[in-house]
Design a protein that fits this description.
The structure holds two protein chains of two kinds. By secondary structure, chain A is of the alpha/beta class. Chain A contains eight helices and 14 strands. By secondary structure, chain B is of the alpha+beta class. Chain B has helices at 10-58, 74-79, 107-110, 156-208, 228-272, 280-305, 316-334, 352-369, 437-447, 475-478, and strands spanning 60-62, 68-70, 87-93, 98-101, 119-128, 131-142, 145-154, 312-315, 337-340, 347-350, 375-382, 388-393, 451-456, 462-468. The chains are: A alpha/beta, B alpha+beta. At the A-B interface, helix 1, helix 4, strand 13 and strand 14 of A face helix 5, helix 6, helix 7, strand 9 and helix 8 of B.
Chain lengths: 228, 479
C-alpha cells in the first residue's frame, strides 16, 4: 500500500513517515501543495494523508482538486485529513469537502495507522479482500468466516450482519442501518428481529473463541471491536 | 402591522392623521360655501323685495277726491293677485293709517312689526294667514304727503329654497370631495409603503447576518434618501464586526497550530520509543492530558470570542446517536454500557456540531464517574413549552447539591472526583480533563438560549440536563 503524506512541519513529517514505514506502508512525504501534486503525478497512491495548513494554501483545495479529477489518480482516492483545527464546524467542513476521515493533532501513531487501514478496507477501494478483527476473518467473496483459521458455520443473514459490522469495525452500526442492509422492504420485521440475529451471531463468535466482540448500545445500535 | 400597541405603525399613523385632516377640510369647505350660499340667496331676496316696494311706491297715486290708491300695471298686479298671503303690499300714511293694500285685512297683523325707518323686517310665524313673512318698508313722498309702502312675502319658500340648495350642494360636494380625500390617503399610504419596502427587505437580510455569514450586507438598492444613512451605517458596523471576527478566527487558527504542532511532534516521538522504555506510558499520559487541555482552552476561547450560529433545525435523537457512537469504544474499554431511551424525534433550533460536542462532554463526564458494569443512559424528550431536553443519567457518586452549579464553572475539578484507578489514564481520555468540559457544555447551552444543570438521580448517581428551548423556525410552513 502506497501512502502519500502531505505535512509542512519538517520534524512531524519525518516522524510520521517513519511511523507509516514501520507499519508496513510505502510512505512518501510532500511538504506543500505543489510538492504533493508532483508526487501524485509521479506515482499511483492508495491513500493520501493531508495536513490542512500548508505554506502555499489550504489542504482542502488539494482535496477538492482530487475529488474533481483535476490531479492524476482516482477521484475516489481515500483521504485522511490531519489538522490542528478542531472546531465542530471545521470538522464538518472537512468532511463536507470530501475527506474520508479526520484526525486532529496531536494524535497517536497507532491511531493514524489503524484509521488508514480502515480507509483502505472500504468497499469502494476493493483492496484487502479479507476483513479481519482479532482472530476473526471474513471473506466477502466466499461469504465465509474463520476464527483462528477454523471455519465458522453461519446463515446467510448472519454472514451479512458480520460483514456489516466488520466493515465498520470499531464504529457504531445503527439498528436502522442493519435493518436497511439486511432486510428487503417486503420482509415483515419483528420488533426484535435484529436483536435475535445479533444474539445468535454473538453466541457463535463466543463459542468459536473469537477475540472480537459485538457490543450493544441500547437504543442506538451495535459495534464490533477486537482488542488491540 | 405588528405590535400596533407597543410601536405604532407609521402607515397607520399617516393614514389616520391624513384622513382626519381630509375630513376636517371637507367640513370647513362645506360650511364656508353653504354660509356664502345662504347669504347670497338672502341678499337676492332682499333686493327683489326692495325693488318691488319701490315699484309699488312709484304707482301710488291720489285721486281727485283725495283718496289714495295704487294703480299697478297688470304685470306687477298679478304678483299680488291671489290673496293667499304669498305676496302682499300695504300702503300706510304718515301716521300709520292704512291707505290702500292688496289685502287690507292683513294690515293689523303686520303693523306692529313695521320698522321705524324702513328697510327689511320680519313678521314672526302665524302673523299673516298663518305663516311667517318677510317684508321691505319703503318710504316715499307723493302729492298727498309722506307715505310708506310695505311689500311682504311668505318667508317659508325662501327657507325651503335654501334648504334645497344646501342639500343639493352638499351632496354634490361630498360625492366629489370624498373620493379625492380617499385617493389622497391611499396615495400617501402607498408612497410610504413602497418607500419603506427596501427597509423591510433590509430587515429580512439582517435576520440572516450572523457569525456563519459575516460577509453579508444589507441591500441598499432602491432605498429612499432618508433611509440610506441608517442602512449604510449598519453595513459599516457589520464590516467592522467582520474584521473583528476575522482577526479572532485567524488568531484562533494560528494559536491552535502553534500549540498543537509541537504536541504532535512530542507525541510522535513518544510513540516511536521502543517498547518497554521506562516511564513511556506516563509520558504518553502526560502529553495526552496536555493535548486535551490545549484543545479545551482553544475551544472555550473560540466559543467566547466567536458566537456559534445556532439557527439550524437540529434533531436531538440524531445528536444523541452521534455522541453515543463516538464514545462507544471508550465505554466498552471502561466496561460501561451506553443506552439511548426510545422516543420520537425532537427538533430544536441550534448548531448540530456544537450540540454533539456538548453531549459528548456530558457523556465523557459520566463515563469518568460511573462504576464499571453500570449503565450510562441518555434521554431525549420534548419539553412541554417547545424545544427539547437531553439528560445523561449515571450511577456514579452523584453531585452534592452545593456543587451542582459550581461544577459548570471553568477550571473546576475535584469536586466530583473521577475514579482514581491509575490504569484508566492513558488512552481513555476520560477523567483527565482540564475542568473545562462542563464549562464548555454550559457555554454551548447559553448560546442556544438554553441551560445546563446537574441534579441528584433517584436511586443514586447524577443526572446532567441540557435544556434547549428554541424551536426551529418553520420558514416554509409559515409562507
Amino acid at each position: 500500500m502506497r501512502v502519500l503524506l502531505v505535512e509542512d512541519e519538517p520534524e512531524l513529517r519525518v516522524l510520521v513517515r517513519d511511523a507509516l514505514a514501520r507499519a508496513g506502508f510505502a510512505a512518501d512525504a510532500a511538504e506543500d501543495l505543489a510538492d504533493a501534486e508532483e508526487h501524485l503525478r509521479q506515482a499511483a497512491y492508495d491513500a493520501l494523508v493531508l495536513d490542512l495548513g500548508l505554506p502555499d494554501g489550504d489542504g482542502l483545495s488539494l482535496l477538492d482538486r482530487v475529488r474533481r479529477g483535476a490531479v492524476p489518480g482516482p477521484a475516489g482516492l481515500p483521504v485522511l485529513v490531519l489538522t490542528a483545527r478542531d472546531g465542530p464546524e471545521e470538522r464538518v467542513a472537512g468532511l463536507d469537502a470530501g475527506a474520508d476521515d479526520y484526525l486532529v493533532k496531536p494524535f497517536h501513531m497507532p491511531e493514524l495507522v489503524s484509521r488508514i487501514r480502515a480507509l483502505l478496507r472500504r468497499p469502494s477501494t476493493l483492496t484487502g479482500p479479507i476483513l479481519e478483527a482479532g482472530n476473526l476473518g471474513f471473506d466477502p467473496a466466499g461469504r465465509t468466516a474463520t476464527v483462528a483459521g477454523k471455519k465458522l458455520r453461519m446463515t446467510a443473514r448472519e454472514a451479512a450482519l458480520l460483514e456489516l459490522l466488520l466493515r465498520r469495525a470499531g464504529r457504531v452500526v445503527t439498528r436502522g442501518a442493519i435493518e436497511e442492509g439486511l432486510y428487503s422492504f417486503q420482509t415483515m420485521l419483528g420488533s426484535n428481529a435484529v436483536e435475535v440475529l445479533v444474539h445468535r451471531l454473538r453466541r457463535k463468535l463466543g463459542e468459536a473463541g473469537a477475540t472480537a466482540e459485538v457490543h450493544t448500545l441500547r437504543g442506538v445500535g451495535y459495534f464490533l471491536e477486537a482488542p488491540e | 402591522m405588528r405590535g400596533r400597541g407597543a410601536a405604532p405603525s407609521l402607515t397607520f399613523r399617516l393614514a389616520w392623521r391624513l384622513g382626519a385632516l381630509m375630513l376636517a377640510a371637507v367640513v370647513v369647505a362645506a360650511v364656508a360655501v353653504a354660509w356664502r350660499a345662504i347669504a347670497t340667496v338672502r341678499e337676492l331676496d332682499d333686493t327683489a323685495l326692495h325693488a318691488e316696494a319701490r315699484a309699488v311706491a312709484a304707482h301710488v297715486v291720489a285721486g281727485p277726491d283725495g283718496t289714495v290708491r295704487v294703480a299697478l300695471p297688470a304685470a306687477l298686479a298679478a304678483q299680488f293677485a291671489n290673496g293667499d298671503g304669498q305676496g302682499l303690499y300695504l300702503v300706510f300714511d304718515r301716521e300709520g293709517r292704512l291707505l290702500a293694500g292688496s289685502d287690507p285685512e292683513e294690515a293689523a297683523a303686520v303693523k306692529p312689526f313695521l320698522p321705524a325707518r324702513g328697510g327689511l323686517f320680519q313678521v314672526p310665524g302665524a302673523g299673516v294667514a298663518g305663516q311667517a313673512m318677510i317684508g321691505w318698508l319703503e318710504r316715499g313722498t307723493g302729492p298727498f304727503g309722506q307715505f310708506a309702502v310695505a311689500v311682504l312675502q311668505a318667508s317659508e319658500p325662501r327657507e325651503a329654497l335654501i334648504g334645497t340648495l344646501l342639500q343639493e350642494f352638499l351632496a354634490a360636494a361630498l360625492w366629489l370631495l370624498a373620493p379625492i380625500a380617499l385617493a389622497a390617503v391611499a396615495i400617501a399610504v402607498l408612497t410610504l409603503r413602497s418607500g419603506l419596502r427596501p427597509l423591510r427587505e433590509a430587515s429580512e437580510a439582517a435576520t440572516r447576518v450572523g457569525p456563519a455569514h459575516p460577509g453579508l450586507r444589507l441591500p441598499t438598492a432602491r432605498l429612499t434618501r432618508e433611509l440610506t444613512p441608517l442602512v449604510s451605517a449598519v453595513n459599516e458596523a457589520l464590516a467592522r464586526l467582520e474584521r473583528g471576527l476575522e482577526v479572532q478566527r485567524r488568531f484562533s487558527a494560528e494559536a491552535a497550530h502553534a500549540l498543537r504542532t509541537p504536541l504532535a511532534v512530542l507525541m510522535a516521538r513518544l510513540d516511536a520509543l521502543p517498547e518497554g522504555v521506562a516511564e513511556g506510558a506516563e509520558l504518553k499520559r502526560d502529553v495526552e492530558r496536555m493535548a486535551r487541555l490545549v484543545s479545551q482552552m482553544l475551544l472555550m476561547a473560540r466559543l467566547e470570542g466567536m458566537p456559534i450560529e445556532a439557527a439550524q433545525e437540529v434533531e436531538l435523537r440524531g445528536v444523541a446517536v452521534e455522541a453515543i457512537s463516538g464514545l462507544a469504544p471508550l465505554a466498552v474499554r471502561l466496561g460501561i454500557d451506553l443506552a439511548l431511551t426510545e422516543g420520537g424525534p425532537v427538533r430544536v433550533a441550534g448548531n448540530r456540531a456544537s450540540l454533539v460536542l456538548a453531549l459528548s462532554n456530558l457523556l465523557e463526564n459520566a463515563l469518568a464517574h460511573a462504576p464499571a458494569g453500570s449503565e450510562v443512559a441518555v434521554e431525549v424528550v420534548p419539553m412541554s413549552g417547545g424545544g427539547g431536553r437531553i439528560a445523561v443519567l449515571d450511577r456514579g457518586p452523584g453531585v452534592a447539591p452545593a456543587e451542582a452549579e459550581a461544577i459548570f464553572a471553568r477550571f473546576r475539578r475535584g469536586a466530583r472526583p473521577a475514579k482514581g484507578n491509575g490504569g484508566s489514564g492513558a488512552g481513555t481520555g476520560a477523567g483527565t480533563g482540564a475542568g473545562l468540559g462542563l464549562a464548555i457544555v454550559a457555554e454551548i447551552a447559553r448560546q442556544h438560549g438554553g441551560s445546563a444543570r446537574a441534579e441528584a438521580r433517584e436511586g443514586g448517581g447524577a443526572v446532567f440536563v441540557l435544556e434547549l428551548a428554541r424551536e426551529p423556525e418553520r420558514k416554509l410552513a409559515a409562507r
